[in-house]
């Protein structure tokens, strides 16, 4: 009877520990995204320069449906495109009866924001800058709270239209649109 009770308590302790550690390592796609060219999404702002066409040169925002609204040509799909692909899309639309040989340049003016939540000083939405790491984002958000787990965080990222969450080290780089969640430590 005593050995059954001891076995039961041991199994209960193991199952409780297993339930507390909802560990989700970062999917391989998390790190593959870092080596790929940046793809535009809703909330990004781009500077479009059409040489010798001051009326078309302007800063445009990618809307919620993933399009830019450009004079003369109308809606241009931008979501999922690189800046170079967007240059080609805009030039192709301008060639269709508006300009003979348009020379278009697209550069990213402002990236979509990141979000930091959980055990930080000031959770919220923050501007993304190239080279931003988890640790830098937490510093921008007021640093770790006294109860924060400072070893790793959970990142939620949109990868090719699929939202994934994984646990990463604080030294890992972030991408625009990422959500950082700083967990509470157990002890």
Automatic annotation (TrEMBL):
InterPro entries for this protein: Poly_export, Poly_export_N, Soluble_ligand-bd
Does the keyword section mention Signal? Answer: yes
Signal peptide range: 1-18
Superkingdom classification of source: Bacteria
Keyword terms: Signal
**Domain Polysaccharide export protein N-terminal: where?**
35-108
What Pfam families does the database record attribute to this sequence? Answer: Poly_export (PF02563), SLBB (PF10531)
* Residue ranges constituting the Soluble ligand binding domain according to the UniProt record: 114-164
- Official protein name in the record: Polysaccharide export outer membrane protein
Q: Which organism is it from?
A: Mesorhizobium robiniae
């Amino acid at each position: 009877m005593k050995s059954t009770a001891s076995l039961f308590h041991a199994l209960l302790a193991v199952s409780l520990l297993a339930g507390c550690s909802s560990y989700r390592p970062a999917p391989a796609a998390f790190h593959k995204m870092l080596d790929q060219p940046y793809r535009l999404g809703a909330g990004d702002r781009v500077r479009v320069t059409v040489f010798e066409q001051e009326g078309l040169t302007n800063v445009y925002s990618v809307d919620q449906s993933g399009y830019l609204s450009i004079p003369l040509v109308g809606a241009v799909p931008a979501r999922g495109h690189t800046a170079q692909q967007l240059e080609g899309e805009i030039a192709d639309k301008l060639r269709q009866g508006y300009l003979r040989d348009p020379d278009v340049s697209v550069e990213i003016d402002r990236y979509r924001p990141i979000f930091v939540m959980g055990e930080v000083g000031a959770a919220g939405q923050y501007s993304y800058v190239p080279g931003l790491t988890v640790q830098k984002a937490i510093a921008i958000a007021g640093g770790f709270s006294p109860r924060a787990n400072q070893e790793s965080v959970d990142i939620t990222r949109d990868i090719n239209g699929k939202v994934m969450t994984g646990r990463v080290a604080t030294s890992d780089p972030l991408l625009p649109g990422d959500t950082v969640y700083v967990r509470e430590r157990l002890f």
